[in-house]
Specification:
CATH superfamily: L-arginine/glycine Amidinotransferase, Chain A
Number of domains: 1
CATH architecture: 5-stranded Propeller
Largest sheet: 3 strands, mixed
Shape: globular
Radius of gyration: 18 Å
CATH topology: L-arginine/glycine Amidinotransferase, Chain A
CATH class: Alpha Beta
Number of helices: 10
Strand order of the largest sheet: 2-1-15
Strand content: 15-25%
Structural class: alpha/beta
Amino acid sequence: MGAIRMPAYSVQAPAAVVMVRPHHFTVNTQTAIDNRFQLMAPPRSDLAAAAHAEISRAAEALRGLGITVHLFEDETRDTPDAVFPNNWFSTHAGGHVAIYPMKAENRRRERRADVIEMLKRSYRVQQVVDYSGLEPDGLYLEGTGAMVLDHIDRVAYAVRSDRTDPVALERFATQFGFEPMVFDAHDASGAAIYHTNVLMCIGTEFAMIGLDMLSDAARRQDVVARLERSGRRVIALSPAQIHRFAGNALELQGRDGRILALSATALAALRPDQIAAISETATPVALDIPTIERAGGSVRCTLAGIHLTPR
């Protein structure tokens, strides 16, 4: 691997995140119908304790790299996916926060006033836009799960699904100044990919994406061209790598440069040449969260990046 360049600050890579540590973790039966990444195995008595320990270790590992981690506790029993806060809110440069409409009824209870109040206390927040009122109309947009945002080039990449309604996406894109780029993606069985952030990750100077899973060849070329036009190196991931969460990663700004936070499962799925390409501009950091991954999401899902200016 080549030496890591000391990068300048990037609006793409937040230096702070919100994480939620679950006390009663379980796999959400309400989301299993369209999340093929979930493992609906019989419940284990140690599942909650294992998930609690995994988030605790992941938060400490990130803090050790100089990343600010705002760690919230979830002690309720009716929010099985609370460990994935990136779906219900996102933050944006200029002091903007979005709150999103969620498809599963039990996921709507994940929205927390104390998280928003912390953001207002600790960061410069000018505006909070709440789209959750779209839920009664069946219009869903599950945050940075439904969208993978290019904060530099202002593009919102989105896989078409029940969790990414085009009306809700258009409203967000217009209000927050993003160009929506929608495409279809399916797994080998023909099932639609449920969230864009399991399919792709956008860093400052690279993008990883499961190109073979994009259904339309012409649209696939459009996506690659758009990513390359933004100056990024495109790293193609295979469907097998996607199913091992290799696309579910997040670039962060650490004390000594940018890192790519991903799971141990994901890192083990990457080839040496792919790791070398990432390592040219960001250091891969593996967080071991196999219990959390049973719920159908990985490291990126557990991190809600904070793109706000500290007070």
